[in-house]
Structure formats: C-alpha cells, structure tokens
User: What shape does this take?
Amino acid sequence: MVEGPLHPLEKKVLRALVERPGGLTLEELAREAGIEIDQARRVIEWLRSRGLLEVEERTRLSYRLGDNGLRAVEEGLPERRLLEILLLGGGKIDMADLVRKGGLSKDEFDAGIGRLVGSGSIEIEGRTVKFVKDNIDSYRYERLLRRIGELDEVFEEQLDEEERAILHELKRRSGYIVPMKHKGVYVRPSLPADELKDLVVEEGIEEITALTPEILADGRWRHVKLTGIDVTTPVPSLYPGREHPISTYSRMVRRAFLSMGFEEVCGGVLQTSFWNFDVLYTPQDHPARDLQDTFYIEGVSLDDVPSDIVDNVGHTHENGWITGSRGWGYEWDAGEARRILLRTHTTVLTVKALHALRSRPLVKVFSIGRVFRNEKADAKHLVEFHQIEGIVKSKNANLRQLMGYISEFYRKLGFTKVKFWPTYFPYTEPSLQIMVHVDELDRWLELGGMGIFRPEVTIPLGVKDPVLAWGLGLERIVMLALGIHDARRLYDNRLSWLRGVSMCQS
Ligand code: PHE
Assistant: This one.
C-alpha cells in the first residue's frame, strides 16, 4: 500500500472515475482525465498499489450501424417512408404504386408493410392500401439510429433503458445493427463514489508541485494549491559526472591540515635513494631497499644528491658523525644513494621540505601523494597508493603535541578513538603506530606511523630543533568510510560501484 499525499495526476484520474463507478477503459480514462495514455498507465499503477482502484480484463458489447441502419439514417425507416408515400397519395394508394414509389428491397418492403399493419397504421383491402393512423412511432427508432451513426459506435452502458429496448427490437431486423465484442482493460474505483469524492475535494483548484517564476509573475500563485511532496516516492536514478572517492577524501584531508595551519608541499614520484632512504638514516642493506620492495628505475638521471649534505649523511651512516650516534658501522656507498626509484613513501617529500626550510623557526607542512611498493596486490595491499605525510619543526615540539595533531586530524575525519602503540622506523625515536578504533568492526586498525626524527636525520640537514613526523594511509581511511573490504575496489573503475557511492556518509 502506498502512503502519502495523492499526486495531482492521481487526483485527475480519480476525478474522472468519480462519475463513472462502472469503470472506464484505459483509453477512455486517459481521454477524460486529459492525460497521455502512458501517463494514465503509470498513474493507474500508483493508484492500484494504493488500493484505490482495480484493473480487470472484461468483454464489452458495442453496436455499429449495418447497411440498412445507415440507409434508415439517410432516408428514414421503410415503414416511415411507406407511410409518407401513402399520405402524399391522399391516404389511399395502389399496392403496385407503393412498391414502385417506395424503391425498397423486397425484404424491406415486407418488413415495412408488416410493421404498418401490425401497429394498426394501415389497412389493406384487396390491392388498395389505406391509411388509418400514425401508430409506428418510428422517430424514437430513427433517433437512436442517428445517435449510433453519429458516435459511429455505442457501448451498451451508454444507452438508457428505453434505448436498450429499442436496440433490442432493431437487432431483430436484419442489417440494422452490427454488434461487436471488445476485450479490454477496465479501470474501476475500489471505493464507493462518496469516499472517492472526499479524496479529490477541491475540484477545479489547480494543484502544482513547484512554484515557477511564471506562476509568480502571472499571479496564478494566488489560486493554485501547492501539494505536499512525497519524498519517499522512488525516483529514477541520475548519474551525473562526479569525483572519484579518493579525490573527495584527498580534499577532506587537505582541508583538515590547512585548517590546522599546515602548508602543502609536493614533489616528483621519481626520487634518488639518497632522499628516499639515506637521508632518512635507512641502512643501505635494509630490506625495504630490496628490489622486491622498491621499484628502481634505469635510464633516467636525477641530479638530486646535494653536495652540502652528502658527506654529512655518509659520515652519519658510517660512524654517527656529530650526531651523538655510533652510525651503522659500514662503508657508505654514494653510488647506491644515486640510484633512482619510484618513491616508496612521501616522507621523502617532507624531509626535503625540512631541508629547504631549515632556517625557518617553525615549519608545519603536509603532503598527499602517491607512493609505490613492489609487492603483489591483494585485498590489503596495493602497488600504488596514497600517503598523507606531515612534519612539524619547532623549538619545543614534543610527543604530546604530535599525538594531539594526529588525534585532531582523525577527529576531523570522523574517527574519535585514536591511540598509539610503540613500533620501529629507522628514522624516528620514539616511533609509534597510529591505531584507530573502528566501531563497526569493534577493532583497532593501524592507519599510519609517526615519531620524532632522530638526530641522525636532522643534524646532517642542519636542523637542530625537534621534528615531529608522520605518514598515514589514505586508502585505509576511504575504505573504512565507505565500508569496502578490498582495496583493489578503489581502483578497478567499476562504474556500478562508483555511481553508487553515497555523497554523504552516514
Ligand atoms: N614512512 C612511514 C611509512 O611509510 C611512515 C612514517 C612517516 C613513520 C614519518 C614515521 C614518520 O609507513
């Protein structure tokens, strides 16, 4: 059962039916309601699901004129014509004369004479026909024939009782009436007429669903009635062009950091190992540097190993240089540092920004960028994905502030329960994993890493202040927000899914 206010079209259809409790065909209904057949079909379906009308297949009888009927419309019924000839002849005529002047077929002539005699309108004496009295009442018959002729076709229910009796008579005379059977769809109200009327009160008042400038301008707004709109009615789906969810969430992330006073930095996807690993104090034999984890690129050159810091970094790896560390204790290979790779994390961008902005007392930058890992893609891992990176350099930066920034960032995206677990990165101390509680799963999920850059990272760059740093996964956030369990779904470009992603997450 459909609830809610009636649509103006539904009212139109019901109004057409108020007067016709016996029902109408689809075509008649459309005509009487003044709407298109297709519209009528749809509206009938709505009304049917509301339980307001019934639709049934029925057979109806209609009548058209046969040849004799058509003639009678033109020239009158034979009995009428014979009577007129008789009267023109002074009320007395020879039978042979009557036959000649009547110009009727033998059947019609016999039928005509039969009715005149039967009704006592004439008397026959020998060969002479004599007028008695006009008793044939043929006008009523002719009127009905004319009406059928004008309508071309009448349905039984269009006739009143008297007409039906006459029709019955006419049907017995051959060639006057041709009955036809119609099979069709009939629409009938399921309510008594008075209840139906109550539903469609305010007859004559135009109902509209939207105010237009025209209606306001021409003053019609004074007379029309604005109908309620049933917001639960299903509507056709529209698929306008729209943003990919990854872009939407990138924007949200950008807005969150901008609102916390951060500047965005960016950079190329091709980087030297020097910036991607060495500056970040990642030992040259670290497994992350392996071909299995990192895409190295051959045949390109990138002169991005700045001479002012290359020795600082090399010495720090070898023996700790002036950083207070003992270093990794191996011979640092500058050639290894020159290898070109697809960046494996966006920490490469923030550490470069740190170097570039080292003379600023306060640095707060973030970046959102694509990173690459040489591993097999599965539900949890992608070869290309996005990281949300950031650093804060300031004289009194501390771990508590770092936890505050990160909690605040996730809060802005709707994740309110955040906690931090110790972990390890070669470039931070302490190092923490960021865990976010996902209520739907009732689980803590790891969404990123963070820490305070080690002196082995900052001193070679000429940075003395503490630097807070973090790197977070973007895809994880989108997956949690959209309830996706397979990361590959984000990039398989399935239109059916992309179209269905709701604009507002509940
Ligand atoms: N680069 C780390 C990763 O890719 C995240 C990180 C960034 C950790 C900065 C600590 C500091 O997982």
The chain has a mean pLDDT of 90. The domain at 8-63+185-226 is CATH 1.10.10.10 (Arc Repressor Mutant, subunit A). The chain has three domains: 8-63+185-226, 67-171, 246-494.
